[in-house]
Amino acid sequence: MVSTSFTTKSGKTATVRSSSAHDYVIAREFINTASAEDTYLTFSGEQLTDGEERAYLADCDMRIAAGDLVKLFCFIDGVLVGDITIGRDIKGRRRSYHCATLGIVVHHAYRGDGIGKALIRIALEEAKQKITGLRIVTLWYLEPNQNAKMLYESCGFKECGRVPGGMWYRDTYVDHVHMMMRV
Length: 183
Fold this sequence. Notes:
Elements: E1 3-7, E2 13-18, H1 24-37, H2 50-65, E3 69-76, E4 79-88, E5 99-106, H3 115-130, E6 136-142, H4 146-154, E7 158-169, E8 172-182
């Protein structure tokens, strides 16, 4: 179980800990708030129920126990401000067990304060220890999101492909950009 802290750029103390199925209420509120923003996430307005979030976190707990997933939450003053997941590609069976996908969300009020970079660093270290055989971590972003691109590049990710017009975002098709890093 991860439990660590760091100081944000603005001097706030951020605490990072492993997620738990018991976190379903705060996790649901967090993702529903991010979804309602309709920014650059997979979610674009959908609202999860307690049952859906509870089932998702229970599945995460099973994958964590199996050594296939790392899921961390970041709190400032008791408020959930960040969520990161690095999960092994289990669909490809053994052929892709060395690959994992990273997903991250930082609350809009806390973006630009170094939380994303710190969460990526902490989660990558944890994933190297917990996901046996991990060699490649991938992620994606939507082309208009240059802040994400700069963050991921500063963490060592490199573009490895794109699907032109691969995602629908605010009434238009935008590039779905894929990045990767070797760990």
